[in-house]
Amino acid sequence: MRDILCISRHSPQSGLLAKEALDTVLAGATFDQSISLLLMDEGVWQACAPLGTELSAFKDLSKNLNVLALYGVDTIYIHANSLKARGLNAHELSSGNTTLLDQADTQALMRDHQHIFSF
Amino acid sequence: MKFTLVILGAPYSSAASFSAWRFCRAALENNQQITRLFFYADGVHNTTALAAPPQDEIDLPAQWSTLIREHNLDAVVCIAAALRRGVLDEAERDRYRKQAANLGAEFSLSGLGQLIEATAHSDRTITFGH
Q1: Structurally, what CATH architecture does the domain formed by A2-118 represent?
Q2: Residue B61, class by beta-carbon neighbours within 10 Å (0-12 exposed, 13-18 middle, 19+ buried)?
Q3: Which InterPro entries does the entry link to (chain A) (predicted)?
Q4: Are A115 and A33 in contact (CB under 8 A)?
Q5: ipTM value of the model?
Q6: For B40, which of A3, A20, A28 is closest by C-beta distance?
Q7: N or C: which end of chain B has fewer CB within 10 A?
Q8: DSSP code of B103?
Q9: In angstroms, what separates the C-alpha of B116 from chain A's closest C-alpha?
Q10: What is the pLDDT of residues B28-55, one digit of tens each?
Q11: Structural domain of B83
């Protein structure tokens, strides 16, 4: 069983919570915890190409997601139903190293972690 | 059971803070342990000493302070989240040359490592957000 699953459910344009969730993943990895990131609901926008940061008060997070691999977070889990509900598909994901999960796989991922942080 | 509570909601923007406060109180009344309270994201607004709501409304920052003081709880505020939202202790006030400090005396500023460490020593970590 892995230590922490961080579920990030907010878009990068909606506020700072997406960035603060990502910072938590980096902190966990820095402190040698086995930590995973699941993008769900509006959070799936984090893995898509940015719309243009000049229109947003918040920084582009997609580059930060690609840094996760350097911290031992090898894959970013994406809730496939959340993508579908927003008319998105896997080809529109700009971040590498993503794994799409159906409903059953998402439930299994949650069961496989001792703690869940929900952002 | 040992709990770490993560408070992500500002006091009057969602039910998160009040729900967390009620959970914390109920856990303590039932002889459960609170390993640490961690105030993060907009939840840092619960830790200001300067909130002055009307007398007929709940004063959540004061309620948190009282609960922490009465039970000698460990209450940590993420320093990066606090600084960007204007919640400063006296050391940060001096460092950034601001005019005032507003962090309540019951709270301490520290890093995200405190959340990770507390989680590693808890049976459950519960996030109260929106």
Answers
A1: 3-Layer(aba) Sandwich (3.40)
A2: buried
A3: DsrEFH-like (IPR027396), Sulphur_relay_DsrE/F-like (IPR003787), Sulphur_relay_TusC/DsrF (IPR017462)
A4: no
A5: 0.91
A6: A20
A7: N
A8: B
A9: 6
A10: 999 999 999 999 999 999 999 999 999 9
A11: 2-128
